[in-house]
Amino acid sequence: NNIAYSGVFLDLHNDLVYHESMPGIQMLMARRFDDSVKGGESFFVDAMAAAEELRETRPDAFDTLTQIPRPFCKDDPARPVPACYYYGAPHIVTCKLTGHVSKVFWAPAFEAPFPVWFDEGAQRRYYDARRAFAAVLLKWRKERAVSLRMQPGDCWIWNQVRILHGRQAFVEEEPGSRSLHGCYCNIDDFASAARYALGDDLPLVPLANRSEL
Question: Entry's Pfam families (predicted)?
């Protein structure tokens, strides 16, 4: 039932936003991507930079999306192991000390309805702000996205809370095939391994996790 396993267009999103402990690192490897496959290119956008553009152009919308949590949900009782996940978070998370954007949550396919008791005025402000951010992301997808066609053996690794990803629609023409395998990694484990691999004398770029420092 996962739309990612189909050939349809997938717009910008990050994965597993309905988890409270959402993994921060995503990896995607191409096992097979034949030349006869039409489409299927992946594209990526720096969501933090897009959020900063929203702050500059619509500061009111930016503030709203840092204050009002959006419910996210995955409910699939038909799976061999039934899945029922629910989590609420603002689309944009900022550091309380510095104010810089530290996370972006964006997954329209998994947005759940607001609870019936949720303030109606807050919902109106939210949807106005969401439309503004969606317009910024659309512009970034068209003008600033990194778009690449994977080659067999390629493995892409990215920060899940900073980079939104998507995929162009594709058609597999026999005997051609497209087979990609993906997995996730805890961002703290990744950062720990990177620090030891790089050595204490090399600076490590901040990873945009929950840390306020």
Answer: TauD (PF02668)
Task: Report d(CA 15, CA 60) in Å as an integer.
Answer: 27
Helix, strand, coil fractions of the chain, as percent rounded to 5: 30, 30, 40
Please list the residues that pair with 155 across neighbouring strands. 29
The distance of Cα 89 from the centroid of its chain, to the nearest Å, equals: 13
Residue with tokens 């717009």: 11
Cβ atoms of 27 and 183 closer than 8 Å: yes
Q: What is the pLDDT of residue 202?
A: 62
Among the residue ranges 28-37, 121-130, 186-195, the one predicted with the least confidence is 186-195
Residues for the chain: how many in total? Answer: 213
Give how far Cα 17 sits from Cα of 51, 55, 109, 166, 169, Å: 17, 22, 10, 15, 23
The CATH topology of domain 15-198 is Double-stranded beta-helix (3.60.130)
- Collapsing DSSP to helix, strand or coil, 181 comes out as strand
Question: Kind and range of the H or E element at 84?
Answer: strand 83-89
* Span 47-55, average pLDDT: 97
Name the CA radius of gyration of the chain, rounded.
Answer: 18
Is the pTM above the cut of 0.85? yes
